[in-house]
Design a protein that fits this description.
The chain has 338 residues and is of the alpha+beta class. It is built from six helices and 25 strands. Pfam families: Cu_amine_oxidN1.
Length: 338
Amino acid sequence: MYMKKTAVIICVSAAMICGAIRLSMRLTEAKELEMEVSKPQQDIAAQEQTKIYNGGENMPLYYDEEDILLLPIRNVAQGLGGTVTWEKTTKSVAVTYKGKKLLFEAGNSSAQMCGYHITLHTPPQSINGCLYGEASILSDFFSTEVRWDSAKKQISLKSKEGVIPIIASDFLVGKSQGKEYSLEIPVIMGLNDGSYEKGLNKEIMQEIQGLVDEFMLGDGDGNFHLQLEKGLVNGDFLSLCWSGKKDEQTIYKTINIDLREQKTKLLTDMLTEKGIANVKAQVPFAENQLFYITEQKELALIDSGKQEQAVVLFPGNGDVLKGQWQTKYADFISASAM
């Protein structure tokens, strides 16, 4: 991902007023790492159009045009109980935490997490002698949720409850004979069954590779792009959705896996008969209906034949679906759906 070098120290109000900040951190009793910010009294130094607080502590950086938050890796890792070391053999920075390892280099989008190769959307950046990483990848690695409180001028990394699988990304990219493709591949880590985890990653990779092969064997020139969106991910269930374009055709792909049973699920496996009838009364419904569960615990139905309004959302505990999930899914979808 290309990122413009004009950056500002993290915004200090809901109105996105940009300015320099001082960072202090503390770990609360609830294992929540808090970063409090305030305007410094010293002057601000500029390097490569990046505003940096000169002589202060390492501070979060916010790239407003890309909507990307970067955090100081060493500060975050040590604050949450991890370690940061330099590995001479690979010439990379190693972050370790609870048996997991994250390896990366400044300026390189290729990284390694838990033994898997992944691709970072934003490469780590060395700024003013401090290495910064994208908040989203650090949040996944440390199983935390990043929150920004504009009223308190405070960033907090709050630990998530239970064991949450990590979903990172890699890409299949290529260009040949007038055709170009870029397909995002999920890299799934942290499942209870390591053997199943490896097999699942291999299976998904083969499916995506099959889509590429089919595209490359087709007639004519063209482009094929698929972007991954993470849906509901917890220790029991995994829901993912891809969307993109193959030439002018809109493409969707979904996968919904019961991690306890280690099986892919259809929507008819998850809803009661009345629930299915309620949904059918609202929208057309196919036997092998494309669907996924969003992070907000909404049911997203996809009609891949439509170019506009292809996705219809139903709140997981709304009028249509309330009380209509099978018991084992109601526990984590309907009971706390937003």
